[in-house]
Design brief:
Blueprint (H helix, E strand, L loop, with lengths): L1 E5 L6 H4 L1 H5 L7 E4 L2 E8 L2 E11 L2 E6 L6 H8 L12 H9 L11 H10 L5 H13 L5 E3 L2 E3 L5 H6 L2 H5 L5 H15 L6 H6 L1 H8 L7 H11 L11 H11 L6 H8 L6 H13 L7 E2 L1
Antiparallel strand pairs: 1-5, 2-3, 2-8, 3-4, 4-5, 6-7
Helix pairs in contact: 5-9, 5-12, 11-12, 13-15
Length: 293
Amino acid sequence: MRRALTVPRPFSLAVTCGPVHWTTGRSPRHGWHDGRLAWVGWEGDRIARRIAQQEDETQIDITGDRDPSLDAGWGRAVLGTGIPLPVFDDPVMAAIAARFPGLHPYCDGSVFDGIITAIVGQSISVAAAAVTQAKLAALFADPVPIDGRDYRPLPRPDQLADATDKVIRSSGVTWKRAGAIRFAASEFLAGNLPGDEFARAQPEATVAELMKLPLVGRWTAESVVLWGVGAPNAHPTGDVALLRAARMAYGRPELTLQELDVLAEQWQPARGLAARLLWTDLFGTASVGDDAR
């Protein structure tokens, strides 16, 4: 079924989907091919698929198999359509924002998916994390073919809670991470973790709650709200890729992680959006010519 999704101006699907491009076609959940985003995920107890392509400044063309009335919520949750870039006083950030005016925070779409991606992604590259996510997803879902490639959503909390550490470990995560993922799933099902709307409204309180989980420190918790629900001010302290990006953007090759934390204070209240701009400046956007499937 084909339909249109109205998006705010300025909005660029290619710029927003930079994180899809960074996974270099290894992610199980999404891909970028010939100017189109392919996405799969859980909506209730069903796997949904969407193919999105930007028609003009205010419209995304969507082909999918779910109720079109769910598209606007998907756009807010995954494409971050309700979170625009602010005006930065910092001249370096202002210049980067001027180069990428259509950037919105592309997200996992939920706190729980953010927990999975953050724990899986601890201390490894984006591409390596995507490979592990793919192995994990393959343990729990049948493939969804789109444009000649198989996609799968990340596991649901009930699937992970019912699994053994050994099964989760077979995806390539460590034993400790396998146990942490399963424990987080059980806590989520028990109602002991913040929900998506709470996390969007109170990201700092969400970070504090998440840090009570095993293997979830400050970087992991901030990454959950940054990538899970697109929290505009989340700051993944200690992120080496962000340090690399800031060193390049500011022309400060000796910048330390501690100095980066101080620098980030001038991006308040949009440290998370500033981080996305810096990563985009370093790693690039998705584009019509890309074939990262």
